[in-house]
Design goal:
The complex is a heterodimer of chains A (225) and B (418).
Chain A (H helix, E strand, L loop, with lengths): L2 H9 L1 H22 L14 H15 L14 H20 L1 H11 L8 H24 L1 H6 L2 H21 L6 H18 L7 H18 L5
Chain B lengths: L1 H12 L2 H9 L11 H6 L6 H4 L1 H11 L1 H8 L8 H13 L6 H5 L6 H15 L4 H12 L8 H15 L12 E4 L2 H5 L2 H13 L4 E2 L10 H5 L2 H18 L3 E4 L3 H14 L7 E4 H10 L15 E3 L13 H10 L30 H17 L4 E4 L2 H13 L5 E4 H7 L3
Parallel strand pairs in B: 1-2, 1-3, 3-4, 5-6, 6-7
Helix pairs in contact in B: 1-9, 5-6, 7-9, 13-21, 15-16, 17-18, 19-20
Classes of the chains: A mainly alpha (225), B mainly alpha (418).
Chain lengths: 225, 418
Amino acid sequence: MDWTEILQFFRGSFFKISLLVFVGGMTYRLVRILLLGWPRDRVKSRGSKATGVVKTYLKGLLVLPFIPWVKRTFNKNALTYIAGGLFHLSLVLVIFFATPHMLVWKSLLGFGWPTLSFPVSDWLAAIGIIALIVLLINRLTHPVLKLLTRSPLWLNWTLVFLPFVTGYAMTHHMLFRYEVLFGLHMITVDVLLIWIPLGRISHFLFYFFSRTIHGAQAGKRAVTP
Amino acid sequence: MKTQSAINTYVKEIGGWAASQLEACTRCGLCADACHFYQATGNPEYTPVWKTEPLRRAYEQRFTIAGRLKLAVGLDKPVTDEDLKHWSTIVYEACTLCNKCAMVCPMGIQLGPLIHDVRSGMAAAGVVPGDLVAATMKQKDVGSPLGVTDKTWAERMEWIGDEWEVKIPMDVQSADTLVVFTSIELMKFPDNIAAIAKIMDKAGEKWTTSSKGREVVNFGYFEADEELTKLFLSRVFDAAKELGVKRIMISECGHAYDAFRWTAANIMDMPKNVAITHIAQVMHDFWKAGRIRLKKGAYDDGTVTFHDSCKIQRRGGIIKEPREILKWLAPSSFKEMTPNKEQALCCGGGGGVISIQEADPLRFAVFGMKVDQMKEIGAKSVCMVCSNCRLQFTEGVAHFGSDVKVRGLSEMVSQALE
């Protein structure tokens, strides 16, 4: 088996398997939570739950990422806010709007969309990599994070970091031949997809639960979420 | 054995609500700097999400495949008796359930209510700080956490009536409003009871107190023992039913307001057609409806600030009402502390912390930040709508040798009545 064959396998049939595991696993996680039981809230509201939910999403998606200091804890954790924010920005934009990634989505969904120019997505990827390294150093040194971090979290970091660096190296033809780097990129992506439903990276799904709950709790009390 | 009863409680409590939020946590640690106990001490164990650790372990190890695997290969630890003891001091002595952490959490996780759930496991396992248990038992047996008997209560109410020359109606059938006070007011801030009586009287409200439902504080709720919480709530509800009142008004007490207004309906049957309200809301309603008139600028002689009580403002929503009153009473000298409103910093006395002597150094350390906040704006007096906060402020201000005057809003309003 040479690298061309390895690449074919990991971007072909094994990628499909990984995707299935990812979708199946996340569906299991979702259904499991939904089936755990949700007792009805019998408390009479003072304000509107729906308003609270809308406000918290607007704030969470439009205000806090750009002006995080409204939370007033910004200056004590500027590193986490900035590096964390930039990492997520980079992740979302690169996954959905870097041309090669959009083409993967197109092959899966049947339709495409406009993408970022190469220099932009390239810089974004570099920012993502730097942010990840900063976050890792922070996690290794901050007393609170040292206490909170359990071993699977290091694996999370590694499994997210690898597709980033292999992807970056590949577009810049660094270190190895293109096929080798592309192969490594696909292997790490596949492993990541399989890992996500098992670990905390799945928070992107539960974010919608906790945000909705937060908005509803604030809304029913007529408090700004 | 202890651990098992705690875990059983956790398993019972975990539904989609708790589980989805536990799953959402990314261990980012941002909640640490929301917590006044962490800010004051720098102890990483006071990080809010770390306080939910026993609940997380119980959840993951019981409900998730990954959790069971991690336990099997030794990547996660089971909850032990020692753990419970350890976390008991953390969740009862270094947390006021103020829920500021939920405002800071990027995922919006309701850490306060989750820590309340952690406490309920502790209560089931019998690992609750002694002082808190003692007060709870007094409330169960005598009817008041401060040990106020029926006789003392009646005598004291009569004395307040005489001393301040106010009428305090007792057990009046078919009154509109049942007013329930705290033992703290009765024993330490009688002026507040007199003030509320004066306001009710001036507004022409048909109101009463009840000798059966005479304590609004709920130490079962502090402990997070659901059965005791319900027992203490039911004493007031039964009184309300017997007297046939239309609403129950909580006096200046935060945790009680939380228990009556936002919790009771979900854990027990409430008397039908009886509304729950708080004195801060009621005063505002009276004033807006013209039932009481307040002297404008009555307190315009030195900076006045307002302390947001976590259970009445952030968790209760009565945010603009007291401010509107204060801006009327002190239009040019009312000043906000920073942060304020739903982002305010808790005083450190809530959640039962003030009743645990062992936690005194902690709550004073936390209060130091409140002193700084007041200094920043040059406050001459600070006002609040929770007697528990007021007690913490009174003791805290004395502890730090500050000369800020601590007041209850009702007391201020009653003196500004026209």
